[in-house]
Amino acid sequence: MADFSKHTDQELSSLLREGDQLAFAFIYNKFKASLYLHALRTIKDGDQARDIVQEVFTNLWDKRSSFAPSSIDNYLYGAVRNRVFNAIAHQNITDRYAKSIQRFLEKGEFFPDNLIREKELTQIIEREIAALPKKMREVFLLSRNTELSHREIGKLLGISETTVKKQVSNAVRILRLKVNLSVLLFYFF
């Protein structure tokens, strides 16, 4: 086995572009722990930090044929930083949406017309939930209709906590898009 520690970043990049799996493994093993800590310092969620690092390395392997940075560590740290920023931005949007719904519910101003619209909206939401893929629907309903944590849902269904989080996040994203479109079409056409 070659000693990749003596290779320059340009040599490692060249080997990676050629599809050298051992060079990729060397880069992965050299940087995975420090990249994880780099992500964890900002987002404070171990699973999410692990996912971000995994995504960066998956992306690196997928795009290896065009990989040509002057510094591998600068490239990797920058990629992790960008994914962390994206994750934070996504979480901020989700939090704002949840707070907006909470404020609306706390007002409690329901008029007969609003009750009819609420019933129609509930039907639209139920229809869109029923249209979700089976496993995603099951995970989503367990997360919304039970007191179970993501970890408990994962154990119950035999999947990882990370998978549960992603399934719930994907379901919310899909529902938000479909329900918004359905409401727009329903009320304006």
Which regions have little confidence, pLDDT < 50, spanning 5+ residues?
Answer: none
Beta content comes to under 5%
Note the run of SSEs as H and E.
HHHHHHHH
Rg computed from alpha carbons, rounded to a whole number of angstroms: 22 Å
Tell me the overall shape: elongated
Average pLDDT over all residues: 85
The largest sheet is:
none
How many beta-strand elements?
Answer: 0
Summarize the amount of helix as a percent range: over 70%
Class by SSE composition: mainly alpha
Number of distinct helices: 8
Query: Termini, distance in Å?
Result: 67 Å
3D architecture notes:
With 189 residues, this protein is mainly alpha-helical. The protein contains eight helices and no strands. α3 packs across α4 and α5 crosses α8. It is elongated and about 75 Å long.
Question: What is the topological layout?
Answer:
Elements: H1 9-17, H2 21-43, H3 46-62, H4 72-107, H5 112-130, H6 134-145, H7 150-157, H8 161-188
Could you write a compact summary of the structure shown?
It contains eight helices and no strands. The protein has 189 residues and is an all-alpha fold. The mean pLDDT is 85.
Main traits of this protein?
about 190 residues, about 0% strand, mainly alpha, single chain
